[in-house]
Structure formats: structure tokens, C-alpha cells
Amino acid sequence: MSTEVVHQPGQSRYVILSDEKEVGVAHYVSREGDIMITGTFIDPAHRNEGLGAVLVRNTIDDIIATTDKKVTSGCWFVTQWLDLHPNYVEKARSGGVDAELGNTCRIV
């Protein structure tokens, strides 16, 4: 099985491809000082294969490599992944409720 994460900036999302088929997505909102990952989805037929973790890691890596913005989370899966990898992201800030979107979020 080959996987690839592709950024689709016009749609504000990253998609994960498995054997060239789209099987998951991470949506984000780009704001002045940060990029908030607002939601993720993995096709139920491909869950428990580690694709969600691959998608999140690659999304965060690309944001850090291509912007000077902080990475924030408004998605429970991203928050959980970041909690499991507490030293992964240095470009981070603390947070609680996101005022613009009204999401309760753990911002790392």
C-alpha cells in the first residue's frame, strides 16, 4: 500500500491517498497568526490502518515547512494526536475556546 498526502490550498485541505485513491481529509482555516486544523476524516473502510496519524503528521509538517504560522487544533483527533506527541511541535501556543470559530480546542 502506497500513501501520499497532498495539499489542496484552493479547498483549504490536505488529502491522503492510498494507492492513488482519496481515503481521508484534513480541513483547515488560515488566519492572521495561525492555521487551525478544524476537522479530519478517514474513510471507514480504511480506519485503524494508521492513516489518520500519517495525515495529521504530514499536514503539520507541511504547515511548518511552508508558513511562519502557528499550528492550532479545533479537531479532537488532531488534539489527541498532539497530546500523544507533546514535544512534536515547537511553533505552538496555549488556548481554550477559539473566539473566531467558537470551537473548544486544545492549542498546542
Features:
alpha+beta; N-acetyltransferase domain-containing protein; Acyl_CoA_acyltransferase; five-stranded mixed beta sheet; Aminopeptidase; 108 residues; GNAT_YJDJ
Explain what this protein looks like in three dimensions.
The protein has helices at residues 51-66, 76-84, and strands at residues 3-8, 13-18, 21-30, 34-42, 70-73. Strands 1-2-3-4-5 form a five-stranded mixed β-sheet. It starts with a strand and ends in a 24-residue tail after the last helix. The chain is built from two helices and five strands; from the N terminus they run ββββαβα. With 108 residues, it is α+β, with helices and mostly antiparallel strands.
Strand percentage: 25-35%
User: Could you tell me the radius of gyration in angstroms?
Assistant: 13 Å
Judging from the principal axes of the Cα atoms, what is the shape?
globular
How many beta-strand runs?
5
Briefly, what CATH class? Alpha Beta
Query: Mean pLDDT across all residues, rounded?
Result: 82
CATH level 3 topology: Aminopeptidase
Low-confidence stretches: 91-108
By secondary-structure content and strand pairing, the structural class works out as: alpha+beta
Number of helices: 2
How does the major sheet shape up? Answer: 5 strands, mixed
Order of helices and strands: EEEEHEH
Strand order of the largest sheet: 1-2-3-4-5
Percent helix among the residues?
Answer: 10-25%
Q: Separation of termini?
A: 31 Å
**CATH homology superfamily name:** Gcn5-related N-acetyltransferase (GNAT)
**In CATH terms, what is the architecture?**
3-Layer(aba) Sandwich
Number of domains as seen in the coordinates: 1
